[in-house]
Amino acid sequence: MFGQTTTNTTGVTSTTTTTTTTTSPTERGLEDLDAAATAYAARIVGLSPERRQEARDDLVRFALPFAGRLARRYRGRGEPLEDLEQVARLGLVNAVDRYDPERGSFTAYAAITIVGEIKRHFRDRTWGVHVPRRLRDLILEVGQATAALTSELSRAPTVAELAERLETPQEEILAALESAAGYSPASLNAPVGGESSAEFGDLVGESDNDLESVDDRVTVSGLLCRLPWRERRILAMRFYGNQTQAEIAARFGISQMHVSRLLSRALTWLRQAMLADAPATWQTGGEAEQHRMRVSVRRAGDRVVVEVGGELDRETADQLRCAVVDAVTAGQPAEVVVDLVDLAAVDAGGVAALLAGRDAALRSGTPLRLARAQPGVRQSLTAAGLAPLYA
Predict the structure, then answer these.
(1) Nearest partner of 317 among 350, 366, 289, 284, judged by Cα
(2) Range list for CATH 1.10.10.10 in the chain
């Protein structure tokens, strides 16, 4: 404030008081940011590092209210306002350090830098569960597309509609929708509500009763390998394939009552074997005797015929393998025929025995062929690659 003396035309002397108000930089407002940045750029030319730092700090303090206003735009989104303000100030410092007056407005550059820093904070630091960056970006796009399509369709869009709008496969849209829950997962320690003191984690999961049966399952799987092939197959068809006894009987060409007796006998043996320290050997006899594997070798002129009957499994396969190998290597017969007319069933062990006989025949140069296999047996042998040996 200072005074000025003037004389008017009447000769009366008067004093006019003029008041000069100095406005602080903080009160100048947003419109002065560009001018302040330009003055800062001109001011630091030729200054020492200490004075340059002081000028930088002055500009940062001057622009702090601007950064605070940008931070407040993002409050209410799950992050404390204090954290957002700190992130905005970091963006402001970066904007001051990187600003070049020749590239345009400082206000626009600072706004872009600060908002970018805030968005990066939300993207990288606020997820409760780690989600790949590609999915995080897609989640934002899905959210924007959902809002747009909801406005256009007056209903929530389907996954197919979102995929078409974003030109993205539906699998990725589904992955983004599922991953969105990772932003703010529910706490297992959150109270359920009401007067109870239970927490959300108390309601998740339940007792796994199957754990108690693990030992029994392991024991049974080992005992099943001790059963003959037919009994194993019937058990699998009944309890894993959910086939009826009549369907199993039709598959094996026996009566439904016979299937019932075989199931009862196998289950009884399994029950007793599980309770015993050493499982008893499976006893064949009576009605089951007809299914025991039988091998006989006879000569018919210059040919050797190996007749096979019953059921061929891994426990009896070695007997057949020895018979066939001996037949093709001893005496150089003109041909060896394996007659399978009485063979009721064959498993992987029996197939391996026939394959070993075939390889021995190829090495010795003796022709080997299979004859009169029943449809079920023929199907198994064909699948194993033995079809060329059929007569």
Answers:
(1) 350
(2) 133-182, 219-280
The predicted pLDDT at position 368 comes to 92
For the domain spanning 133-182, the CATH number is: 1.10.10.10
CATH class for the region spanning 25-125: mainly alpha
**pTM for the complete prediction?**
0.35
- Does residue 294 sit in helix, strand or coil? strand
> For 180, how many CA atoms within 13 A lie in the half-sphere containing its CB?
13
Q: Which two tokens mark 186?
A: 């529910």
Q: Distance between CA 219 and CA 273 in Å, rounded?
A: 9
Q: At what angle do helices 133-153 and 159-166 cross, to 10 degrees?
A: 110
* pLDDT given at position 1: 36
Give the residue range(s) of CATH 3.30.750.24 domains in the chain.
Answer: 289-389
φ, ψ of residue 363 to 5 degrees: the values are: -70, -35
Backbone region of residue 253 per phi and psi (left: phi > 0; alpha: psi in -120 to 50; beta: other values): left
Cα distance between residue 134 and residue 353, in whole Å = 56
Contacts of 113 by beta carbon, 8 Å cutoff, 6+ apart: 91, 92, 94, 95, 98
Which CATH fold topology does 289-389 show?
Transcription Regulator spoIIAA (3.30.750)
Architecture of domain 219-280: Orthogonal Bundle (1.10)
- Residue 14: pLDDT band with limits 50, 70, 90: very low
Cβ(274)–Cβ(219) under 8 Å? Answer: yes
Structure tokens at 97: 């350090």
Distance from C-alpha of 245 to C-alpha of 243, rounded to nearest angstrom: 7
Q: Does position 156 have pLDDT exceeding 70, yes or no?
A: yes
Cα three-residue angle 91-93-97, rounded to 5 degrees: 115
Query: Would you call 19 helix, strand, or coil by DSSP?
Result: coil
pLDDT surpassing 50 at residue 16: no
Using an 8 Å Cβ cutoff, are 368 and 338 in contact?
Answer: yes
Average pLDDT of span 84-93: 91
| Beta-ladder partners of 303 | 300, 335
Taking residues 340-365, report their average pLDDT. Answer: 86
